[in-house]
Amino acid sequence: MSRFFATGSDSESEESSSADEITPKATGTTFNKPALLLSDDEEDTKRVVRSAKDKRFEELTNIIKTIRNAMKIRDMSKCLEEFEQLYRAFLKSKTIVDKEGVPQFYIRLLADLEDYLNQLWEDKEGKKKMNKNNAKALSTLRQKIRKYNKDFETEIASYKEVLNSSTNVISLCRCQDEESESDDDEDSEDWGSDSVDSGGESEDNEGAAASLAVVFLKKYKDGRRKRHKKIEQVEEEVDEDGEAEEGGWEKVKGGVPLVKEKPKMFAKGTEINSAVVIKKLTEILQARGKKGTDRAAQIELLHALSGISNENNLGQGILVKIKFNIIASLYDYNTNLAAFMKPEMWKKCLECIDELLDILFENNNIFIGENIAEDSENLAISDQPFRVRGCILTLVERMDEEFTKIMQNTDPHSQEYVDNLKDEGRVCGIIDRLLQYLESKGSTEEVCRIYLRRIMHTYYKFDYKAHRRSLGLQGETKSEQDQEESEGEDSAIIMDRLCKFIYAKDRTDRIRTCAILCHIYHHALHSRWYQARDLMLMSHLQDNIQHADPPVQILYNRTMVQLGICAFRQGMIKDAHNALLDIQSSGRAKELLGQGLLMRNMQERNAEQEKIEKRRQVPFHMHINLELLECVYLVSAMLLEIPYMAAHEFDARRRMISKQFHHQLRVGERQPLLGPPESMREHVVAASKAMKMGDWRTCHSFIINEKMNSKVWDLFPETQCVREMLVRKIQEESLRTYLFTYSSVYDSISMETLSEMFELELPTVHSIISKMIINEELMASLDQPTQTVVMHRTEPTSLQNMALQLAEKLGGLVENNERVFDLKQGVYGGYFNRGTRTRP
User: pTM higher than 0.70, yes or no?
Assistant: First the structure.
């Protein structure tokens, strides 16, 4: 008898089913309960009694299936809900788990779920695309799973070790393979032999029942073949490793090393001439852009074609044409505009452009241009000069844009950014070479375009060597001195020459606008305040800059900020404040300068707009320090606002010079406990309070100290000059504030005393007080023989000031009341016209 009949006969099934059926007996009653009316189908179905273990484990597996389905569609809310249900079901199975142990499928789910959640959490772009409920459920579930998995750390660790161990994989696959092979043999003999018989209560029958599951798993033949392949692959890797250690064999992946043949361009025996190569080039280009075209293979074909044309001396015209198409194919390798070029593609691109420029410089008989039609091209060697359709200026502009994208998409705090930035020297070298070529053969419009590219790589760089020469300093070593002498023009001379050519020759407003802004920026960066200010005022850009495109507006904002910082360095505090006011008062300086995006709602900016704005961002090496910018603005506002507040302390119509500065003062006043200042803003607020009391030394110590020097002041090129200017401005404005605040206390005060108090020269004190008297800010007079300031006592006392404010408010109230009354009565003129009214 076969195993099938031995284990699953009808008599045994009837006996087991009859034994399994439970017939409850009615206790304490003599009558039979009426039987339920059942349909025929329900009577035929037999009741199956399962153990508690099977029930609980089936409930767990069903929930796990639901969780895995939710993981596939990234439904985090469903995952969280089902995980909580799984947790409750596992608690119900606690007694069974204590006996049997934690099931392996449960440990596997916990490990997979934790890895899956960590992967989702690290995917920043994917998290942004999640809706609010899924994002919230992701963070909640991640916290819960990390906390919950602490109880199963050992089981999860052992599971991962088994999963990652190659030896365990081999042994496991072999065992399963041997079982499946034995099952195949038994299948060929009608699923078993007579050795396994009807001894149900014997141990042999238990073994047969246990192997029954293995028998039914034999269906998965494909899986067994995969295991065979996996075993062979792992064994081959192990054997190759051993051979490599013993005899020095070279490890080759994938078996026998295949010799990669070069693509055959032409049939054997074909005569290679210009017409054949041009025809092949046209065939390659026709496949460009089509679906399924391998772009990398296209680039290789074009390289091979250029090699063939070189070998057969087909002329430089065909070679230039092929080079043009190779560079264009490198640019088209990434279909997405936002994606940047891979490093290997970028290196190839630079090399190809250099080679193309070499050919153009060596051969003066090659004419290239966009206006040359394809029919009129002359690529073959002849008496006529070569004519090639193409624009090398467009290729170099695209190369410059690709370099900007590479810098935008690289982490600015990594070594990779520094390595990529080193390529800027090559980019500038290519632009300079093309500039020389176009100056001799290009049109005026093309020269203006390449000049602007050169300007954009120069305007933001501080020329330290020119600065040292202006100060009369020389290099420390002889090699540095020789290098400085051998170097060419200063950046100021280069900028002046390029920009003036654009001013004179350019016919497009955009290029001229960009050149003016870059010129102003460069002047301001090198502390040429008056040239920068005059050029800005003469250009009238501030009148219509709102109509320009966003990149030009960003450049304008950067120029205004640099102009304000330059004015601050020169001691023009009011001009600095006015230049920085628009940027700082908006609260969006980071976004307006193109140095980052602020967090906004999806209603204000969708994903497409965010991508566009990211492409407009300025690379990190061109950024302006935002903390330095804010510090310059707040210090300028302090030097203007504190004397004004002291002069108009009781003026009801006092206006604010800087709202942001007042906001910082209010924040400082609201703090219940005042400690020593830590941030830059706290230092400025503490200095403002000291200046308000006329204490210039304390103000000076808060503005200029080690912490502020390292954060702000040391970032300026002429650090010491800026510090000296700041000290002088603090002394002068503290003197003005002191006179405004305490003039009502003094009858007269000696100018020598004021000079000693604020450590200023006597002529400076005399000048400051004279200006205050002339501008009618201070009601006093100077007594020249005694060098004293005599107060006139015309300022009202605090009580009188309050009375004046009350009178002004009451007058305004009366006027408003009269106006409302007249509107109701329909009579205009109020109280003063009452006498002229005619009585009835």
Answer: no
